[in-house]
Amino acid sequence: MSQEVRVRFAPSPTGFVHIGSLRTALFNYLFARHHGGKNILRIEDTDQTRKVEGAVENLISSLGRLGITFDEGPETGGNHGPYYQSERLNIYREYCEQLLASGHAYYAFETQDELDEMRRLQQLEGKQTMYDRRGRDLSDDEVNEKLASDAPRVIRLKVPLGEEVRFNDLVKGNIKIDTDIVDDQILLKSDGFPTYHLANVVDDHLMNITHIIRGEEWITSVPKHILIYKALGWDVPLMAHVPLILNPDKSKLSKRQGDVAVEDYLQKGYLKEALVNFIALLGWNPGEGEEKEFFSMEELTKEFTLDKVQTSGAVFNIDKLNWMNNAYIKNYDIDKLADISMPFFKGTGIDMNDKDRVKKILSAIRVYLNKLNEIPEHVELFAATEVTIKEETLLEHLTSETSKKAFASLSEKIEALDFLTADNYKLAISEVQSETGIKGKALFKPVRIALTGSENGPELPAIAEILGKDKVIEFLKRWH
RNA sequence: GGUCCCAUCGACUAGGGGUUAGGUCGCCACUCUUUCACAGUGAAAACACGGGUUCGAAUCCCGUUGGGACCGCCA
Prior knowledge:
Blueprint: E1 6-9, H1 19-34, E2 38-41, H2 55-65, H3 89-101, E3 105-108, H4 112-124, H5 140-148, E4 154-157, E5 164-169, E6 173-178, E7 186-188, H6 196-206, E8 211-215, H7 222-231, E9 238-242, E10 245-246, H8 262-267, H9 272-280, H10 297-303, E11 314-315, H11 318-331, H12 334-345, H13 355-365, H14 375-383, H15 395-399, H16 401-415, H17 422-436, H18 441-452, H19 460-467, H20 469-477
Parallel strand pairs: 1-2, 8-9, 10-11
Antiparallel strand pairs: 3-4, 4-7, 5-6
Helix pairs in contact: 1-10, 6-7, 9-11, 12-13, 16-17, 16-18, 16-20, 17-19
The structure holds one RNA strand.
């Protein structure tokens, strides 16, 4: 391949980053890196009504946090800018003129109401709703007259009828569509802005995009785009339409059935590595019998190819994400884990400045965490100033004679220590065992309940060390 | 409704003419651990259906069924 690979991620700045967008952005990024090409960010802000303040910054930072970066774009710049479509209006207009002049486009003057009525009728007849191409019948005089007035006008693509558009999709294979069912798509809106269809063709060409990688929902508008490329005398980039990410009921992933914003997942304490790993495996896999499931961004970059992209949609399975996230949490560098966990300790009563202690706590509980926002519920016992016994039935373990004896003995042993560690706690416990003859459940269960108020939880020696000598004695004293 | 896309365990998937159809999540059982969890072992669990082609089809072809996407002066 002599030509440099250039791909683009082209979102519209309407707010948060959708999981589906993340996947598209990821695949573009991986593809570009795999081929040593360029990854370009282009903002498709041609719909003035949907603009959201701060969306672009948010998008770049969210993607950046996950390790998805761009070689050209609004913040990085580049030789093919501007990268906001709203700043390229004159370019689109120029090509629209060209299309008009060559007879590949025409003016149309219908109002919104007229179009609505047209569609209503079509629906009534059970026909496909599409522009009925009535503007094509206007004479030159009629057009000129309208143009001279202040009537709103629009420029539409003149789709050649009775033809067949074929293209070879890199993941879907050969696709053909009859032009008779292709709409005379609006190219330039009455507000002077282009539609997506015109803008993306013009930009992809001008920005030398070699591969278009985007969601499957675009596949039905490909013929329009190809017709535009042809009308302008341009080569059509290679295309790869990746399957959708689905709700559990197999419909397109939507807010209705759970979180769809990348930010939501980050906020809940899904690690970026886990998120990227999981999303990459939704619709792609290394194939060839490879059974590995954990991939770093570097490994993904190395392995990723379009021919291993799945042809059918993939359900977003939160259970597996949780499992994977937990796996990352369990194996994460403890220092780094402590750093990124800090926000989740807020309000728990744990001193966040005492990083050593935070690390010890994390080591004790990480095995339980599917995501970082579960920290508070597991950390309660370490911050407690007194133990609350949650269930009545646990009380009898604390009030029996053997328990009292064990508590007294254990207190005494710990009292003699300078400070409590997991190791000398274990020693103390075994001394209690041999001196009092109390052992097994009869010993461990009451102690656990006395220290934590619960029958289960992390390992006792670790808990004892984190609680510290004073608290352990205090908690024990209460029962003897 | 029209057009297009898709079809292996509940989910993610490997396999792509001859396999006991493999792995992972989840579910269940057992083991380990004096708790829960983790870990380990094991089990249940799939080629949508019907026709072809072929000595042989999950695999190739056609059809049916089912699912999805799109049908906007949104992207």
